[in-house]
Amino acid sequence: MLSKILSVTGRPGLFKLISTGKNLNIVESLADGKRIPVYAQEKVVALSDVSIYTNDGDTPLRDVLRSIKEKENGGKVTMGTKASGNELFNYLKEVLPDYSKESVYASDVKKLISWYNILMENRIDLDEVETKEENPSEAPAPASESEEQ
């Protein structure tokens, strides 16, 4: 399911891929359900392509989200939006002890927590097995790039 959940640079929140065309995608905001076009020149990243830097390489976002879900017993993270950098990093250390202190920033942790809360609000299944579909119209746009946190 995370392959159909997108982050669009310059737009807040997360989006669900609805359809793909030649030069644009139609996405639906998980926040308000509004559908908008996202053009090929915009940077679009599927959450399945995101990873977080660790001391031993990268950890896929899916694994980090599962760790958060386990820690929170399936509930939302209650940390406020005004949490300090130390609070954010202490939280991340609980769910991903070997994160790279040089490469992960407080803004990345805020985004991670925000994304997790959005996914939980929308009951997105983090454990759903992703399969490669033969229908290319179901894949994210070719303009997608991998974004690492």
Give the secondary structure arrangement, pairings included.
Layout: E1 5-8, E2 15-20, E3 24-29, E4 35-39, E5 44-46, E6 51-54, E7 57-60, H1 61-71, H2 85-95, H3 106-121
Antiparallel strand pairs: 1-2, 1-5, 2-3, 3-4, 6-7
What does this 3D model show about the protein?
- The protein has about 150 residues and is an alpha+beta fold.
- The protein has a domain at about 50-120: Orthogonal Bundle (Arc Repressor Mutant, subunit A).
- Helices cover about 25% and strands about 20% of the residues.
- It is built from three helices and seven strands.
- It has helices at about 60-70, 85-95, 105-120; strands at about 5-10, 15-20, 25-30, 35-40, 45, 50-55, 55-60.
- The strands form two sheets. A five-stranded antiparallel beta sheet has the order 4-3-2-1-5, with no helix packed on it.
- β6 and β7 (about 55-60) form a beta hairpin.
- The two termini are about 20 Å apart.
Give the tags:
two-stranded antiparallel ribbon, Arc Repressor Mutant, subunit A, 7 strands, 149 residues, globular, alpha+beta, disordered C terminus
What would a concise description of this structure say?
With about 150 residues, this protein is α+β, with helices and mostly antiparallel strands. The chain has helices spanning about 60-70, 85-95, 105-120, and strands at about 5-10, 15-20, 25-30, 35-40, 45, 50-55, 55-60. Helix content is about 25%, strand content about 20%.
